Structure formats: C-alpha cells, structure tokens
Amino acid sequence: MSRQRQDRLVAILLRDGGWMTAAALSDVLGVTPRSIRSYVTAVNGRVPGHPVIASGPAGYRAHPTGAALLKEAGASAPGTPRDRLHRLIHALIDADDGLDLHDTAAALHVSEATLEGDLSRVRALVRTGTDLALERTGPRVVLAGTELARRRLLSSLAHDEMDDGAFDVEALRRVVGATTVSADAFGRFKGELAAELGALGYFVNEFAVADAALHASIAVDRALQGRSLDAVRGDPEAEHERLAEVVGRLAEAAFGIALGPGDRLHLASLLLTRVVVPGTARAGAGGIDPAVETAVRAAVSRVSREYLVALDGEEFALRLALHVQNLALRAREQAWSRNPLTRSIKATYPMIFEVAVSIAGDLSERLGMAIRDDEIAYIAMHVGGELERARAGGTRLTATIVCPGYYELHELLRSSIARSLGGAVEVVEVVTRVDPDWRGIDSDLVLTTIEPPTPSERIVRIRPFLTESDVDRVQQAAARLRRARRLARLRMELERYFDAEMFVRGIGGDEQSVIRRLGALLVERGVIDDGYVDGAIERERMSSTAFTDALAVPHAMRMTASRTAIAIGIAESPIAWGDSRVQVVAFAAFSESDREAFQTVFEQFVEVFGGRDDVQRIIRRGTDFAGFLDELVAIIGS
C-alpha cells in the first residue's frame, strides 16, 4: 500500500475541508473506492487513539488536529518508502567513495531487490538537471558531482515536500538532513534576514527569504561536516560582498557557525536571484539587461493586445523585467524558486495564469530558457497585482439608498455605507421619500430602510443605523449579482460555441491523443488547422491546462481559429492529465475576433467546473450532447 497515496489522500481532504465520498476520492487518486477505504484505515492506524480521517454517511473528512498528529508521527516513522529514499540519498551524498549495496540494504533493513528499486528512483531524480550521476561498479555505487550539485539535490527534495502553501520547517529540516539547525534558529535567521534586506532597500519576497534560509540551513549542516564550498575565484561585485557579509553575520548569530567565503557568496548569489530593488525600478531601466527589458516589453505588449488587458504601465514593465532578470539567473544556476501557491493561483485565477503562460512562452523563445510552472505562477502574481491596481474601483456596483428623511439620518447612513462598503458599491442616489418610484430606480442595488412593495434579488433591507449583519447582507447580494451577470454572459457564449457534432463521450488516452482526437473534430469543420492542434500540444507542454480536479481546457496560445468553438470530451473514468486527473476535456479554439469572449468563456467555464458535486452531476447525466448542455445550463442558472 502506498504511504505516499495515503498522505495525498489526507492533503486532498484538508484542502477540500468538507465531506468527500469514496468515489470522488478514488477519481482524484486514480484508485478504486475499496482502496480509499483501505487508505483511510491505514492512515488512522498510524495515529492510534486520534482519528485523522472521520467517516460518515457523506463520506470522509479530515480532522485538522489528527492531521497535525499524523505529521508528528511521520517524523519518527522510519522505513516508509519516502523516508528510505531520503536516507539513501543522504548516504550517497555523504559518502565520497560510494556505498556498498549489500551493506546499505542491511543497514536499511530491506532486501537488495527493494534497494535496487530505490536506486532506480534516485537515478531518475539525479537525471533531471542536477549535474549529478550515479556511477556503479559491481555492488558499489558512487554519486558523482560537485558539492554545489549535491546541495541542489537536497534543495529539490525540500521543494518537493512543500504542497499547497505549506511550509513545515520541521519536515523540511528532516528532508534536507539539516537536523543540526533548530527550528527556532531557522525562524530567527529568516526573520532577521528579511528585516535587514528591507532596511537595505530590497523588496522582500517572503517565499524567497524562506527559501534562502533553507539553503542557509543546508550550508550550515554541510559546513559542520567539513563540506564547505570552495572560495569563489576572482573579485566578487560590491553587492555580492555586501549581502555575503549580511548572510555570514546573521548565520553566525543564529546558528553559531562562521561560514566560509564560498558559502557566504553562494548564499548571497541565491538572494540576488530572488529579490528586487525597488529603487532600481523607480530610477528607470538602469541595472536591467537591455535584452531582458526588450523581451519583457515585447511580451507584455503582445498579451495586452491579444487578451485585452491593461498591462502597459511603466512601473509594471520595469518590475517584471527585474523579476525576469532574476529568473534568468536562476535558470542559469538551476536554482529554481518554489512557489507553494502555484496550484491555488492556477485554479482560482485561470485567466491571469493563462496570461502569465503566454508571457512565459514569449520570454522562453526570446531569451532561450525554459520556465517552470512555479516560475509562471510568480509571473501571474505580477500580472494579477497589476490588473487589480488597474481595475481598482472599476468593479463596484451602483446602489441607491432609500431612507425617508428625518433630520440628517440619510446622510449618516450614506457615510456608514461608504465607510463599510465603499470597495463593493458606489452610492449614486439617495431617495428620502416614503413613497419612492421603485420601478424608476435603475441602479444595480437598492439599499432600503423601508419595506419594498415587491421583494427583489437586488433590493436589500437594511437598518437606519448600519449593522455588521446589514453589511454582510449587502456584500452577499452584491456577490450574487456579479456572479449572476457573469454566468448569464457565459451561458449566452457557450450556446454559441458548442455543437452536438463536437461532443465525444468515452475519451481516453494521454493528453496528446485526447487533444488530437478533439482537435480533429474542429479541423474537419474548418474551425482550425493542424497547426492550431500542434500549438495546443505545445502549450500543454509548457504548463498543464488541468485547472481543476475534473476539467482540462487545452488550447493554443495564438487565437488563429476561423471562429470560436469548443469541442467537449467526457471520460467514463478520470484520466491522467499532467499532475492531475480529469474527466472533462474542453478543447477551446478561439478566434482573433472573439478576444473578449476568451476571457468570459475561459475563466467562468473553469469556475463552473470548480464545484465537485456540479461536475459529477454533469458527468453522470451528460450521456449525450443534449443532456450535457441541459445540465451545464441548469447549473449556470442555479
């Protein structure tokens, strides 16, 4: 039974927060419902007396306290496949003359066949861009490579341990083997480093500083073993020396060890690939590589035109150029930055993530570097921040206050609404009559202190002196109205773009075969050509288009379709798609003339498929095109 799948089961339940059936969990994990029941029993057995997963008529739900105890139990549970893999990697990293497989199998209390399997997993890990290699002579295996490459392998293990925003210091210390560094010392070093960087004028990225602190822990642990990095040749730049002094001083204070010049300068280099100096951005393009700035401006200009988004601000271009310059340095040093919010950003803001993918594709071509999902998510954070600034105040709904005049009561109410709800609604009129013309009020919302003759979704009854419950009701009404409008637009668009001839029930295979099968339906009808299909496959290679646990939306990055159309494929059981498993695939072909529709359809379509129960309802009842469309429209209208 896979301990890794048990842990993933707990993570899925914690992320969902509610009850999930065995069938839904089996779809996500790609196992049978019977296996789910076995996993639940095994997980609960790992923490006797403290159930991690509760069972009930509605399925299963994770208990947060039990999940925390499970992590603690995992810390002292040797012999699991993951623990054994980490121990083997650490042994290989520490043994300059290699390991004897017979002795290692005995030390790990496993058979030599099991150890051979673990060794295959190590070989797969070091093969992917680590500059390390496993060299074998008979029963002896040596991990060949530099000290820096070994540290990168430890760092990649730690990054793999992080999931969905979790940053468990104890778990990360165990994974990288830095048990000589206490969690308190780690936290102290990270906090003081962030404070000092801020005082020096650097923009502090909390994820980046935490990552730098993790690398510092690795450096301290390796230095204590006598495995310091060699001093860097040549004269380092002044900025490197300044940061190296900061890192060395703080490390000695927190960890009680004086790092050598090689370690200090290495950590300074890592920091410089992860921070941005705001002063540089305000002063202009000084310090930015002209090639990077040109590439960023070209990419931003193109996506602004194609996606109809406002990304043409000078500050944004310079900030992003500085970030990309650091990204290029990370790519060159293979010092990738982990973003624990990647999954969340992709699922919650698919349109923003798609714009980031398009920018990353452009930059990859122009600068000749591969850009990973985590790095795309950082670009999406830049894009999302800029779009949020650009639309500040632009998404407010209009509101009319109906409050019969009594001294200045209506003015006090207007002030209270502006203070409490100014970000959500804009008051455009105050009606002080006791008999207002209700039909003549054309604002989005009506906030009234008197009972209206006819109830309405857009009319919200409030008290003359605004209370917290009034504020909550107005916010809920505003959210319902915005969602209803979005989904109404989506319903109109989808009915235009769907076609019974482009609906397939019973798809299967890998991503490429599914894309080609659905793409062929669009090619046959002259919507796209084979080049668009190839473009969709290339887009998929950059970053998976599985935006939820059930839905993938493959498409090309260029809007070259003759008209906008969507081919739908439904799998009888979930199929692997990137790191996820999906059951609905919507191959979207977008035309240049429908650029606005891209945003409406893309983002809202993903939103509809974000509800697990709704997805299962569509899949269960959508046995043919008519049934699929009926259920989809019913859910949109509900």
UniProtKB/TrEMBL annotation:
Family annotation (PANTHER family)? CRYPTIC BETA-GLUCOSIDE BGL OPERON ANTITERMINATOR (PTHR30185), TRANSCRIPTIONAL REGULATOR MTLR (PTHR30185:SF18)
This protein's source sits in the domain of life called Bacteria
PTS EIIA type-2 domain residues are: 495-638
Q: Name one Pfam family in it.
A: PTS_EIIA_2
State the InterPro entries in the record: BglG_antiterminators, PRD, PRD_sf, PTrfase/Anion_transptr, PTS_EIIA_type-2_dom, WH-like_DNA-bd_sf
List the source organism. Answer: Microbacterium gilvum
Q: Where is the PRD domain?
A: 287-393
Query: Keyword set for this entry?
Result: Repeat, Sugar transport, Transcription, Transcription regulation, Transport
What is the protein name for this chain?
PTS sugar transporter subunit IIA
Q: Answer whether the UniProt record assigns the keyword Ribonucleoprotein to this protein.
A: no
